[in-house]
Each structure stands twice: as C-alpha cells, then as structure tokens.
Amino acid sequence: GPVQLQLSQVADVGEVRVDLRSRVLPGCVPSRRKVDGTESWDSPVLLLPLNHVRGGLVGSGQELGKAVAHIALAFSTDADPDCILDAADAETRTVAGVLQDHADNMKRWFQKPIDLGLSLGASGACSQRPPSHEESGLMQVSTPQRCDALRTLSPRGCERAARRASSRRNPIRASGPLPDPEEAPDGWISRKGRNGRVFWHHRMLGPAPWEEEL
Questions:
Q1: What pLDDT, in 10s, does the model give residues 73-118?
Q2: What percent of the chain is modeled with pLDDT above 70?
Q3: pTM for the full predicted model
Q4: Is 49 helix (H, G, I), strand (E, B) or coil?
Q5: What pLDDT sits at residue 47?
Q6: What is the reported pLDDT for 199?
Q7: Is 199 helix (H, G, I), strand (E, B) or coil?
Q8: Same domain, 182 and 100
Q9: What is the pLDDT of residues 42-73, one digit of tens each?
Q10: What Cα–Cα distance (Å) separates residue 110 from each residue in 107, 114, 119, 130?
Q11: Is 122 among the domain residues?
Q12: Pair (97, 50) in one structural domain
C-alpha cells in the first residue's frame, strides 16, 4: 500500500510551477460521473521536479537548475477544460485579435449560402416574404456550433439544446409579428457561440431550447 510518513516538524523541500494552460488542462479527460450527477475531468499523473528553495530541507550545495526532488501530481476540475481554455484565451487576446475575429465572422457570414427552403410555398413557387423571427430562430438553434461555456453554454449544453430544438414536432408560433429588438428589447434573449455567432430567441415563443429541462 501507500507509504505514509509523519514528520516531527514541517520543512520546505522545494518549489515547482505548473503551467495549467499548456501542461494540465489539455490532458484532462472525463472521469466517471459521480453519484450526485456532477461531472469531473482528471489529468494524468505528472512527475514534476522540485527546485531548491532558500532554507530548504535539502542542502544548498545542489547544482543550479538541478532538481532536489520530484513530486507526482494529478489535477481534477469540475468544469470542461476546453471551456476554461477558451475563456483564458478570450481574456488574454489583444484588441487586434478581437477585431480580426469579428472580421473573420463577418466574412464567414457573407460567404454562407442562403437556405431558400424556408421561402418556398406549398406550390413550390418562391415566396417573397422573409422568414419569420420564429423560423429563423429555430433554424439557428437547430444547428449550433460549440459554445464558449463559461460565458454562455457548455459544448454539451449546446448539443442538448440542439436535440431539444430538433425534437419539437409542433414549434410554438407567435400570435403576431415579434417586436423589433431595438425598439422593444424586453423578451429577447441570446446565446453566443464560440465562432461568434449569436442565437436569438423571444420569450413569446416559449422557453429557449437551452433553458428547457431534459
């Protein structure tokens, strides 16, 4: 079994620094779901060298840069590591990087082909009316991209919302045209995806797919 030691006094052995972004979080994998339903992600065991510290237990005669000891560490988190990395990247991006992302998103939006299926009437002729808010809202939510979870939804939450949206056999229809969000913002909610795309939903259409219970 594991060896246990009880020391008569506490003393410093060494110190170590671990880069969570590059060494820990990328290697975390989902662990078994707990009894209470919560999820966690665990890292592999990392063997890390301890550097000498002033007044440490190991003598100061060690060569510069040579480890005085090694320690095995494993890390665990209850948040999706990919989401943590995305949030960290978002916080450390430069202004130029943010502007470039917005430009890329606009470019992809303009280059995306238009789905004319929503504009076809029963006779097969093309209708001149634009798709209604409820139709466009359901279309967007039905095929979401992976989301930035710490600010909006987790990737798993996006998948669940997509399943709920696609499983609606009788989508709720508004009794009339939905109000313009600029003139009447009350009732409008949104979620932003990782690629910058924003999914809008109005309370008049019922709960949003990402709000419903499984």
A1: 999 998 888 888 888 887 777 777 767 777 777 777 667 665 544 4
A2: 54
A3: 0.41
A4: strand
A5: 92
A6: 74
A7: strand
A8: yes
A9: 999 999 988 877 777 776 666 666 788 888 99
A10: 5, 10, 19, 17
A11: no
A12: no
Domains of the chain: total: 2
Question: Are 94 and 184 found together in one domain?
Answer: yes
DSSP 167-198: T-SS----SSPPPPTTT--TTEEEEEBTTS-E
Integer Cα distance of 186 and 203 in angstroms:
9
Looking at the structure, tell me whether residues 65 and 108 fall in a common domain. Answer: no
147, 80 in Cβ contact below 8 A? Answer: no
Check whether residue 108 and residue 44 sit in a common domain.
no
| Same-domain status, 27 and 91 | no
Note the pLDDT of residue 42.
92
Can you say whether the dihedral through the CA atoms of 115, 145, 194, 138 is positive or negative? positive
| CA–CA–CA angle 138, 143, 144 (5° rounding) | 100
Domain span holding position 148: 83-112+132-205
